[in-house]
Amino acid sequence: MNHYELAKEILVLVGGSENIAQLNNCATRLRMNLKDESKIDLNKIKEIQGVLGAAKKSGQYQIIIGTDVSNVCDEIRKMGQITESSAPIQKTGKLDALMDIFASIFTPVIPAITAAGMIKAILVICVLFGMNKESQVYSILNFIADAGFYFLPVMLAFSSARKLGCNPYLAVMMGGILLHPGFTKMVSAGDPVFFLGLPVKLVNYGSSVIPIILAVWLMVYVERFADKISPKPVKFFMKPTLTILIVAPIVLIVLGPMGSYVGTVIATVTDFLNSHVSWLVPMLMGAFMPLLVLTGMHWSFLPILMTSYSTYGYEAVMGPGSLVSNICQGAAAFCVALKTKDRQFKQQASSAGITALMGITEPAMYGVTIKYRKVLLSVMLGGGAGGFYAGLMGVVRYTSGTPGLLSLPIFIGENPMNVIHALISCMIGFCITFALTWFYGFKEPEIDGAVEADNGRETGKPVPKSKKIMIYSPVNGRKVKLSKVSDETFAKEIAGKGMAVEPADGRITAPFDGEVVTVFRTKHVIGLRSSEGVELMIHIGIDTVELDGKYFTSHVADGDIVKTGDLLMEFDKQAIEAAGYETVVPVIVTNTGNYLDIITSEEGAVESGQPLFTVL
Predict the structure, then answer these.
(1) Where is the PTS EIIC type-1 domain positioned along the sequence (predicted)?
(2) How wide is the angle at C-alpha 292 spanned by C-alphas 290 and 294, nearest 5°?
């Protein structure tokens, strides 16, 4: 299927171009906000040939395409007019909304930053091969690359305006004001500057990140105010004039210096970590990157990355760890492909392993590692070990890009050993992950010598040895299939198989005899382990983590031994629903990969203590 056909099918299933409020793409995914979310058919989108997966994360619909995503995005734009300035978007949680803002602001400028960084890498290689730094060719290519970083405030102004909902060209003008030669000359001179008696702090805003975002945020409200007070006959010139006359002085006097100070703090903290505990952040990123990507939390680091690029010309926060993590995903997928006897799964895992080594981890993550808890743990341990080495050796990423074997040039810089240490860290992560997955992480279901009966005849197929373990409902209510839960992590069985209950009250009881493994700090999740070894997660509500424990009362603690029917947790169902949250209770077997199957019961009414599903 070519780019046009793929774009056309996607556009139909999202409700047409008129239903798209915002559209952009990152290295592998289409990212869109929709005006009417009831029009999208996510399940059919997942079935389109050429689509690797689809989900709603961080307030956005994300359709995983792969490295051809930019071509598909361009085709969608050609097929209809998409207005992206101030279209209404359905309300999401505060954390999701914040990450959605970060993603929408920074994602569009990543190609420019990547191009600038790659040109810098090419220049380093050219110098190693004898190019004279004083030559005109070097000088021209150098300022071409510098432009991508120096004019970052202008690019961020445009993307911020499109996301936050103000005139993008007035925002670009504000970016130009911060970089104007007249102002930079004042900064260079260093003499005190005042505006109407108020001091203007002399800050170099070239390559800055936070000041322009604060400026555009203010502009959103000022522009609305100017629109409201401007008479219609003169609105076309009075509104923009008022907007700039109000915003520019406030930014130069207050918001700009404030944003610069925040950026300086971020840079100082980053520098401190790199100087004193250089191994810590890459190790944590290498270990937890799969979970960050799964939840969309990796977008929250974008302001830190951009600040680091603009301040130092490199970053060591996410790049080294994510490179190792991606390689570890590939190692796990390859190991599973070698061990499994399922031909179809072997082919799927092999393909996913190749794409993961190239930096595209979604097929490996969703198709292999997340399905098996121990395999995912192997990836995290390998990623942590490789990340530790990368941090210890001071590995940095010189520009943005999806880390993988094909994108290793983003680790080429003035230190020629940087890319060598990056490769060594990858080898460490690959070997550890492969070994752990082989000896610990992946085990296919045991089989005995029995044969499957088919209407009284033997088919000759081996059947897995099984033991039935009954899981009882922890709450009164109505049991429903996981596929009907609004959260994709549960509906797609990413966290494991099981069933959900729409509660009739707020009492959670033990679904079997066993141990309380963990009660989350926010009390919305309880982890249990049965006496037979079944690891169960009871998740109370959707996005209720945002309540930070409000309306929940725990009656157990980590390590407690419980019997079937013991009271574990109470929650105020009415108060949680009044706060805008769903109270459905997914009951998930998190070590699903250790068992043959999860046999769910029929949907319908259920009481606490009645059978919910069977683990084989």
Answers:
(1) 100-456
(2) 65
